[in-house]
Amino acid sequence: MTADGLSLRTPAATADEGATPRRRATLDQSGPTAPPRRNGELAFAEVWESRVFGLTMALHEAGAFEWEEFRQRLISEIAVWERREEEWSYYGCWLRAFEDLLAHKGLCLTAAVDARAHALAARPKGHDH
Amino acid sequence: MTERDANALRAEALESLLVEKGLVRSEVVDAIIRRFEQDIGPMNGAKAVARAWSDPGYRARLLADPWAAIAELGVTAIPDAPLVVVENGPAVHNVVVCTLCSCYPSGLLGLPPSWYKSPAYRARMVREPRAVLAEMGLVLPADVEVRVWDSSAEMRYMVLPERPAGTDAMSQDDLAALVTRDAMIGVARAGRPPEVGGDS
């Protein structure tokens, strides 16, 4: 828990939305594993980034894994990226870390994600949202 | 397919699978994203308010020269437009609107909430502020004067809410946690301190 308000409280305005956390994660605020921020709030460049972030938080708050289990995988994925020459994508690393954790926990296997992504990619144009 | 498109597909695949397995609900994910965007956004403004409550000299500087006072906090807010801090008290309640668009002190409060940008809020807050505030859950006594401030590209406003009762012994960090975005727009009061013995 950090002192400056980055702990994941549920404010009064959203307390009635059924997302009362069982537990709280403390996001790193600096260093390579800290999420990008603009003026304090988390910065999502694309919708999928916010979805994968929200999925991770939802499963963690439901007690599916310890935050440190995810964080160590995120650190590893960022280290892997540093050895490659790819465009930097913080949430790309986050996504791979989350997938790896889910597979490790037996919650969602990589082959199933591959198959579902393949099926979604085959949708006719205009049905991809 | 680009790397980004591939990531977007995998994220969508993951969500659909996790929902099917009953491990998450999409509405919970929606609420979490909203919570982060709203809760973390107003951190800079909340720090300034908490310090103003704790330090009369800082309060005076915040009211006299807001951006200079905010710079004292060491935060990275960019003074993108002139700023006025308006102070609530027992006889005066301030509330901020942008009637033309959605001018907003984002450097202090994060992203504006969707209702702030809605035509109804923008039009009605000027015409019937008491009614709109009551609909948002803030019923003000009849003898409290309501002042509505119209933000523009040339001038932004932030409300300095009243310090809640029962917070005399609280640290600035704990006080900042009571200062919500809505309180600094003026559509709510600052939060109450947590119950003694509560674990949050």
Helix content of chain B: 40-55%
How many extended strands of chain B? 4
Shape of chain B: globular
Query: Uncertain regions of chain A: pLDDT < 50 for 5+ in a row?
Result: 1-21
Most extensive interface, residues per chain? A-B, 52 and 56 residues
In DSSP terms, counting alpha (H) and pi (I) runs of 4 or more, how many helices of chain B? 10
* Element order of chain A: H for helix, E for strand: EEHHHH
Explain how this protein is built.
The complex is a heterodimer of chains A (129) and B (200). Chain A contains four helices and two strands. Chain A has a domain of 62 residues. Chain A is 46% helix and 3% strand. Chain A has 129 residues and is mainly alpha-helical. Chain A has a two-stranded antiparallel sheet. In chain A, a hairpin with a 2-residue loop joins strand 1 and strand 2. The longest helix of chain A is centred in the middle third of the chain and has 16 residues. Chain B has 200 residues and is mainly alpha-helical. Helix content of chain B is 45%, strand content 11%. In chain B, the strands form two sheets. Chain B has a two-stranded parallel ribbon. The longest helix of chain B has 18 residues. Chain B starts with a helix and ends in a 15-residue tail after the last helix. At the A-B interface, strand 2, helix 1, helix 3 and helix 4 of A face helix 1, helix 2 and helix 3 of B.
What order do the helices and strands come in, and which of them pair?
The complex is a heterodimer of chains A (129) and B (200).
Chain A: E1 37-38, E2 41-42, H1 47-61, H2 67-82, H3 90-105, H4 110-121
Antiparallel strand pairs in A: 1-2
Helix pairs in contact in A: 1-3, 2-3
Chain B: H1 3-20, H2 26-40, H3 43-54, H4 56-64, H5 66-71, E1 83-87, E2 92-97, H6 106-109, H7 119-127, H8 129-135, E3 145-150, E4 156-160, H9 172-176, H10 181-185
Parallel strand pairs in B: 1-4, 2-3
Helix pairs in contact in B: 3-4, 7-8
